[in-house]
């Protein structure tokens, strides 16, 4: 039960659009691929759209926007499905994940595997819409997505693997648009990886007690009571890498002006971060969608105003 001193941290709402609008048989699948919680899809897509803007020197084509948006939605769903399959016996022991479809018995493992296969087939169809270089990059992403859920069993840095996989589309944006992945694109991507380590560590603090009890690992456990310093350090690295990428690409000064706003947003996040308020840390995690929107704006003005 939720109380003021102990908020309910479950990441599933039982009175949302999935419950109201989807047939009952579809609901566990929608929740398995997180259609009911689109923040992860947005945090996958927004930096990818920023990279598309840089690679296109302004406005990407509508077709490329559609393909990469659909790809972000599908691959995020694939990642979530694989995650829940690996963690089906652990999620019941974590307050945030105890109602997920596999761990709560709403869905069988067999049906989840069939659903995963269907998602992968849809992703395979998208390969025909991108160039050969990008297809190979897409294939290289699969093992990263597959091993991520296992990482917390043997390393305190699963967030790094998550950041690599979540932001892989930024590299593909360049490979598909220009058939190259220059150093600036790699630096821009590394900045996004550092950004994700920072904001996903905020998310990880909500599970820290359950993870310790189960012997799992995370950056939150590693950082401990020095979370502000570590997360702040990753945000500084993010900002510095994005500045470096902008210099190499010769972007307009307005790019750096918007980066200053992003930097202030990061400072605000770190300043209000509280180890004792996991519910507030969820809100800070979601607030990174605003940073993603600002990043797109920075890339657009930085290229269009040159």
UniProtKB/TrEMBL annotation:
Catalysed reaction, written as an equation: all-trans-octaprenyl diphosphate + 4-hydroxybenzoate = 4-hydroxy-3-(all-trans-octaprenyl)benzoate + diphosphate
Transmembrane segments: 39-56, 62-86, 107-127, 133-150, 157-174, 180-206, 227-247, 253-275, 287-305
Single GO term (MF): 4-hydroxybenzoate polyprenyltransferase activity
Entry EC number(s): 2.5.1.39
UniProt keyword list: Cell inner membrane, Cell membrane, Magnesium, Membrane, Transferase, Transmembrane, Transmembrane helix, Ubiquinone biosynthesis
Protein's cellular compartments: Cell inner membrane; Membrane
Topological relation to the membrane, as annotated: Multi-pass membrane protein
Keyword Transmembrane helix: yes
Family: Belongs to the UbiA prenyltransferase family.
Function: Catalyzes the prenylation of para-hydroxybenzoate (PHB) with an all-trans polyprenyl group. Mediates the second step in the final reaction sequence of ubiquinone-8 (UQ-8) biosynthesis, which is the condensation of the polyisoprenoid side chain with PHB, generating the first membrane-bound Q intermediate 3-octaprenyl-4-hydroxybenzoate.
HAMAP family per the UniProt record, alphabetical: UbiA (MF_01635)
Protein name listed in UniProt: 4-hydroxybenzoate octaprenyltransferase
Organism: Mesopusillimonas faecipullorum
Name of the gene this protein is made from: ubiA
